[in-house]
Design a protein that fits this description.
Rossmann fold, about 30% helix, Dihydrodipicolinate Reductase, domain 2, 14 strands, 6-stranded parallel β-sheet, 2 domains, binds nicotinamide-adenine-dinucleotide, single chain, alpha/beta
Length: about 400
Amino acid sequence: MTEPDQVLKVAIVGCGNISRSHVRAYANTGRTTLVGVADIVVEKAQKLAEQHDSTPYASVTELLAAEDPDLVSVTTPPGSHAEIAIEVLAAGKSVLLEKPPVLSLAEMDAVAAAERASTGSVLVVFQHRHGSGALRAADLLGRGALGRPLVAVCETLWFRPVSYFDPEWRGTWVGEGGGPTLGHGIHQIDLLLHLLGPWRTISATAVRLDRPVEFEDVSLATVTFESGAVASVVNSLLSPRELSRIRIDTTGGTLEVNHLYGYADKDWTFRPTPDAATAATLGMDPGNRKSPTEADGAEANPWTASAGADVPSNHIAQLGHLVDDLLAGRSHDTTLASTRPTMEFVAALYASAMTGVAVHRTELTPEHPFYQALNGGIPEPRRGDSFLT
Ligand SMILES: NC(=O)c1ccc[n+]([C@@H]2O[C@H](COP(=O)([O-])OP(=O)(O)OC[C@H]3O[C@@H](n4cnc5c(N)ncnc54)[C@H](O)[C@@H]3O)[C@@H](O)[C@H]2O)c1
C-alpha cells in the first residue's frame, strides 16, 4: 500500500448524504479504487454501488469478509462510529471516521486501544484544517509570524428547522450524542484549537430554547488557553442569518475567517496592528476614531505575503491529502489522537454547563462522570430549562 505508484483500495460504510462527498473526493484523486460500500439499508448500498461501479454489502462485517480495503470511510451516524472503527481495526485496516469521531472520551480511548493493537490507523474528517487558509494560518501562527494570540471569538451560528429533527436518531443523546456543540460547532472548535493550541479551562452555559431535542440548541463558553489567550465560543442552531466565524486578535493584528460550510482564501483576512505612528495618524485613540483598513501596512502584511494556491476547505482537500499521505507511506496529520483535545473540549463544555462550575482539562480522567457520556448521566432537564442546576 505504501508504494508511490499504487492505488489505494477504499471502502465506505454508511451510504447516506455525506458518503457522496467521500466518493467524489476519492474519485478526484484518481488514485483510489472503491472496492465496496455497505449500509444496513442494503438498497442504499446497492444504489451507491451501481452509481460508482462498486460492490454492495449489508454490513461492515460482510464487506470485510469479502474485500481487502486499505482504508474504510465510516459515514454512519456518530453513535455507531466506535463499534465500526474497532471492527475495521481488528481486521488490520485503517479507518477514516466522519466527525464527530466518537460520542465520548471513553469511546475515544477504546478506539485508541484498538488502534494500538492493529496494523491500521484511525484518521478523522475535519476538513477545515485542510483548506489553504487554515494551513497558512497554522503555519504563520505556529512561527509567531502573526504575533501572539490574545483574544478569540469562535461562532457557529447555524439554523436547523424543527423538521431537521424528524429522523428518529436526531435530537437524541443516543443517536446524535449532543447538540450543536458536538454535531455542528465541532468544526469551528476543532479549527480554533488547532490554531491556538492546548486549552486550559472552560466555563459554559447550554440551553434548550426552541427545538424538540434532548440536549441544547444553544451553548456558550468562555475558554482559557495554556498560552494565556482567551476565547468566547458560541454554538447555535437557532440563527436564521447563518455564519461560521473564527476571529483571533494577536499582538500583530486581527486574523479572521467568515464562511458557512467551507471557506476559500477570499474568506480569510488579516489586518495588521498599525505601528504607533500609523495609529496616531489614523486617530486610533478615543475621541478621534478612524478604523484602519486592510490596505494599511499591506506591503508588510505576512498574511498577504503567504498567499499561494487557493484550496477550499472541503472533503476533496482533506481526502486528497490523506490519499497522498497513505500512498507515500506518511502518516496523515488529522489522527484520532490529534482530535482528542476537541472531544475533551466538548465534554468539558457539557460538564461545565450541566454542573455550573468551570472545568479544567486535567479533570477529565476516566473517573469523571462526563468521561463516560457527554450528558454525564444527569437526568434530562425539562424543555426550556437551562442545564445549570
Ligand atoms: N464533515 C462534514 O462536513 C459532515 C457533514 C454532514 C455529516 N457529517 C457526518 O457524517 C456522518 C453521517 O451523516 P449523514 O448526514 O451522511 O447521515 P445519513 O443518515 O444521511 O447517512 C447515514 C447512513 O448510515 C447508515 N447506517 C447506519 N448505521 C449503520 C451501520 N451500523 N452500518 C452501516 N450503515 C449504517 C444509514 O442507513 C444511512 O444510510 C455523521 O457522523 C455526520 O456528523 C459530516
